[in-house]
Specification:
alpha+beta, Alpha-Beta Plaits, 2 domains, two-stranded antiparallel ribbon, 6 helices, 6 strands, 15% strand, transmembrane helix, DUF4956 domain-containing protein, transmembrane
């Protein structure tokens, strides 16, 4: 049955859409919630990842007949590459996950009949496994240094190390992994300290100074 020369429903194509959409959503869920979320404290990207995944998938799937496949897919990456430099700075790790989500959505939408379901499934599993290995097995957790000016000079003493760490953590809210005392000024009763923490503990700040 047609309306204005367009089929009201195409069972085969609709079934493909539902099947692939569900599969793509499942893969996106695994990447975002089971891999990214467990290794990052940034929750503000969850909405963006799912929204972009859904939009890119449906856009690619419905425009597949236009035969822009490879050029269209590369164009999407180029657009988001431009956005990367035109908007507020997005951390490299979050940007990488964004490209992974886009890539997965494009693959799941544009893979044609020459690609079997087993090949498509293996491709998605390979991407998920790679992300998981990089996050879990290799423990690629970036350590970030933060410079602070500290005024409680008595805590600089080696015997007061625990008090120093506790005081810094209470003030900054950052879980400190280790510290380096760079400079001590007894005349002004201040010390310059470099603290090291996980990259997810703090974003967008380089220096904290206690006046």
């Amino acid at each position: 049955m047609k309306f204005l020369d367009i089929k009201l429903i195409n069972i085969e194509d609709f079934s493909q859409l539902v099947l692939r959409f569900g599969f793509n959503l499942l893969v996106t869920f695994i990447v975002v919630f089971l891999i990214y979320a467990k290794n990052s404290r940034r929750k503000d990207f969850y909405f963006s990842y799912f929204a972009i995944s859904t939009t890119i998938f449906t856009l690619c799937f419905l425009l597949e007949s236009v035969k822009l496949e490879l050029g269209f897919a590369l164009g999407l990456f180029a657009i988001f590459g431009i956005i990367r430099y035109r908007t507020d700075t997005i951390p490299i790790k979050e940007m990488t996950y964004l490209f992974v989500i886009i890539g997965i959505s494009v693959i799941n939408a544009l893979s044609n009949k020459k690609v079997s379901y087993l090949e498509l499934f293996f491709t998605n599993v390979a991407i998920i496994a790679t992300m998981w290995i990089l996050e879990k097995i290799l423990l690629l957790k970036q350590e970030v240094a933060l410079n602070i000016t500290y005024e409680k000079i008595e805590n600089i003493h080696l015997l007061n190390k625990e008090s120093l760490l506790k005081d810094i953590e209470n003030r900054t809210g950052i879980k400190v992994k280790r510290i380096e005392i760079q400079e001590i000024n007894f005349l002004r009763d201040i010390a310059k300290i470099r603290i090291f923490h996980d990259v997810n503990e703090l974003n967008g700040k380089k220096t904290i100074s206690k006046e």
